Amino acid sequence: MTDISQNPVPDTPVKIALVTGASRGIGAALALALAKTHHVVAVARTTGALEELDDRIQAQGGAATLAPLDVTNEGAMQHLCLSIFERWGHIDTWVHTAIHGAPLAPAGHVDTKDFDKSIACNLTATQRLITYVAPLLSVAPDGKAVFLDDDAAGKSFFGSYGASKAAQMALVRSWQAETVKTGPKVIIHQPAPMPSSLRARFFPGEDRTKLMDAEGQAARVMDLLK
Q1: Distance CA 16, CA 100 (A)
Q2: Is 30 left (phi over 0), alpha (psi -120 to 50) or beta?
Q3: Which of 144, 143, 148, 145 is nearest to 189 (CA)?
Q4: Tens of pLDDT, residues 153-201
């Protein structure tokens, strides 16, 4: 991970976008779109994918700080947010797309490790990140946080993913209701189905030509941020 605190401080204020889950899909598309107006702090577990994203951001004249970290690592997330505070003092936009999609299984056959991992990534990590990121968003002039919804809860065989995602969104909606008057603004968006690797595992054999690409979905989210 780049040591954020060692970067030189610019003469003019910089808009900062934190993207957790930035290595692929809509997370990468949003990081690329935000990099046109923000310095992007891109978080994901896959170093190679982050480096590819960085190449694309640089090619369009933007800049990013790569953080190859697991969002479930509490200490790493604390250190990252502290480094952002020491370097820039705020976050203008936080986009959270990190997700664990456990294999589909009947409710009575859900693997315990898969269920625990789903809760750790989709719910617990989100709760911790809200705690760490909220103060950084609150000191920005117009701080915003973006979360992606899903309608998988209650569907057959989606027990681990659906339950953990529903719990995540219940938490996010509480935060959204609590911050209407005080900020930061919490935006919830449910994308149309996309040809992601996660969806390919959930729906093998699906005709992916009928799905909207990640860039199109990212454009919709960028409109909401405006």
Answers
A1: 25
A2: alpha
A3: 148
A4: 899 999 999 999 999 999 999 999 999 999 999 999 999 989 998 899 9
Question: Radius of gyration of the chain from Cα atoms?
Answer: 17
- The pair of structure tokens assigned to 142 is 């117009």
Q: Which of 134, 202, 219, 193 is nearest to 162 (CA)?
A: 202
Furthest C-alpha separation in the chain: 59
Return the ∠ at Cα 10 (arms to 9 and 11), rounded to 5°.
125
Cβ–Cβ under 8 Å, residues 33 and 22: no
Strand partners, 40: 17, 64
Question: What is the CATH code for 14-219?
Answer: 3.40.50.720
Half-sphere exposure of 166 (CA within 13 A, CB side): 11
Paired with 172 in beta bridges are: none
Domain chopping of the chain, boundaries: 14-219
pLDDT band at 11 (very low <50, low <70, confident <90, very high): very low
The span from the CA of 180 to the CA of 176, in Å, is 6
